[in-house]
Amino acid sequence: MKKRACFEDPKDEGENYYQEMFASGKLGKSLDNHFEQETRATPGAISTSVSKRQRVEAEARAESRIHAPKTPPYGPKNPPLPVTGLALLFASTSSPRWYPDGNIILRVNDTLFRLHHSRLARYCQYFPQELIRPSESSAHGHQEMVDGCPVFTISTLDVKDLEVFLTYLESPVQLATNPPSQAIASSILRASHVLKSPLFTSVVIRALESLWPSQYSPDTPTIRRPWTDALDAITLAHEHRLPQLIKPAFSTLLRSYTFWDTLKHDRARIPLPEADLLRLYHARRAMERAWRLLVLAPPPAECCAPERAALTGMACKVEGTARAGEWCAFWIERGYVEQGAHDPWRNVTAMKVVCADLRATWCWWCLEERMQAWDAALLEWWDKLDDWLGIKRIL
Ligand SMILES: [Zn+2]
Fold first, then answer.
1. 271 and 291 co-located in one domain
2. Is residue 326 part of a domain?
3. What is the pLDDT of residue 133?
4. Distance of CA 45 from the midpoint of ligand 1 (Å)
5. Tell me: the pLDDT tens digits for 254-304?
6. Cα separation of 215 and 209, whole Å?
7. Ligand 1 centre from 310 Cα, in Å?
8. Residue 80 domain-assigned (yes or no)
9. Using one digit for the tens of pLDDT, what is the confidence trace for 115-138?
10. Pairwise pLDDT comparison (27 vs 389), residue with the higher score
11. Do 237 and 351 belong to one domain?
């Protein structure tokens, strides 16, 4: 069993008394009985007893306020609430990271962690290189103690984020051998930001960059990432100044049917400010326009290789002014002009497959000319996304 909190602050005799009560098990059984006993044993001390009780209740209320909802994206964090030593009595010590030989206590919201200072200090600048010992602490009278270990209260950190961070702090090689998921990387980034760990920050940023590559390639994984991950990545990018994630994450939203459908029917599920949504609307209009121009652009007015095509017996069947009309009619009838506009990057691949149906009318060289133009457009559109989304104005 883990030991519970004990207090060594000589300035507060009341807390020392609670420490003894707690060690005897009386305080944990019934706080109300404790107050009643104190009142009976000390005639005239009713006001003192009530005062202590009010203090406990006030601290309990303060504890509950710590669990207020998180601030909206990009918004300021809630200011940390003051936590006194007495509140530690009621703090949970249910964290699995309570090492008997630990020499430092981290208090995050209502959870205590007993950890090893040397490991924390090696990777986190938040912690001093020299740990203040209990005797030195008492002399200074500032440091709160639990089980003879100094307590560091961190109000700006989430318990779950810290637990994830500690998992990798104890086994950093996991980050190298098994790249973390976005959720894991986000937790580590938030914790390493608070604890000031440059090494972990740089490692998980590289992991996030591999999940959201800023360079386009036909096999870019961004098109397969869930749109909800893109929302999280955008929030993370704003909070931790990671501009390199903005473009790939926005492009995933831009091309996601589910995102636009959710935005239409359930705006509350999209935690993006109106300015970001306007960027997406603007980019979507520009992207759809570019797509339609590309799909409806026919092969050259004259066949690209009439002699070679004639030799193979597969010459273009349409010539002159009829070529543009024939080309546009094909794609309009197939529905590609409108339906494909939602995700041009993906639908260019689909168009190449459909080209097989065009070989009866167009020669191999004319179709190849178009397919090369489509591939070039994919790269061109990726570059234009910065303008379409107003990326430079975001950063
Ligand atoms: Zn041709």
1. no
2. yes
3. 62
4. 103
5. 999 999 999 999 999 999 999 999 999 999 999 999 999 999 999 999 998
6. 10
7. 9
8. yes
9. 999 999 999 999 988 876 655 544
10. 389
11. no
The pLDDT, as a whole number, for residue 288 is 95
User: Could you tell me the distance, in angstroms and rounded to a whole number, from the CA of residue 307 to the centre of ligand 1?
Assistant: 9
Distance (angstroms) between ligand 1 centre and the Cα of 367 equals 7
Q: Which of 45-54, 198-207, 281-290 has the lowest mean pLDDT?
A: 45-54
| Long-range CB contacts for residues 369-375, cutoff 8 Å, separation at least 24 | 369/299, 369/300, 369/304, 370/297, 370/298, 370/299, 373/294, 373/297, 374/294, 374/348, 375/348
Find the 332 Cα to ligand 1 centroid distance in Å: 21
Centroid of ligand 1 to alpha carbon of 322 (angstroms): 13
CA distance 122 to 115: 13
Q: Both 109 and 255 in a single domain? A: no
pLDDT digits (tens, 9 = 90+) for 222-236: 457 899 999 999 999
- Ligand 1 centroid to Cα of residue 298, in Å, is 11
Residue 317 C-alpha to ligand 1 middle, in angstroms?
Answer: 8
The alpha carbon of 313 and the centre of ligand 1 are apart by a number of angstroms equal to 11
Q: Could you list the residue range(s) of the whole structural domain that residue 116 is in?
A: 1-156
Is the same domain home to 215 and 259? yes
Separation of CA 358 and ligand 1 centre (Å): 11
Task: Please indicate whether residue 51 or residue 319 has the higher confidence score (pLDDT).
Answer: 319
**How many domains in the chain?**
3
- Same domain for 14 and 152, yes or no, is yes
The closest alpha carbon to 378, from 217, 191, 180, belongs to: 217
Range of weakest confidence among 139-143, 165-169, 341-345: 139-143
Q: How far is the centre of ligand 1, averaged over its atoms, from the C-alpha of 297 (Å)?
A: 15
CA of 314 to the centre of ligand 1 (A): 8
Ligand 1 centroid distance, CA of 318 (Å): 8
Do 260 and 291 share a domain, yes or no? no
Beta carbons within 8 Å of 209's beta carbon, 6+ residues apart: 244, 245
**Among 262, 284, 306, residue at a domain's last position:** 284
| pTM for the predicted model, two decimal places | 0.70
Q: Check whether residue 2 and residue 150 sit in a common domain.
A: yes
Residue 201 lies in a domain: no
Domain limit, last residue, from 284, 314, 335: 284
In sign, the C-alpha dihedral spanning 122, 124, 130, 136 is negative
Q: Tell me how far the alpha carbon of residue 302 lies from the centroid of ligand 1, in angstroms.
A: 7
Q: Closest Cα to residue 234, out of 253, 255, 216? A: 253
What is the distance in A from the centroid of ligand 1 to the CA of 315? 6
Q: How many whole angstroms from 308 Cα to the centroid of ligand 1?
A: 9
Contact 4, 93 (CB under 8 A): yes
Give domain status of residue 262, yes or no. yes
**Tell me, what's the pLDDT at 284?**
96
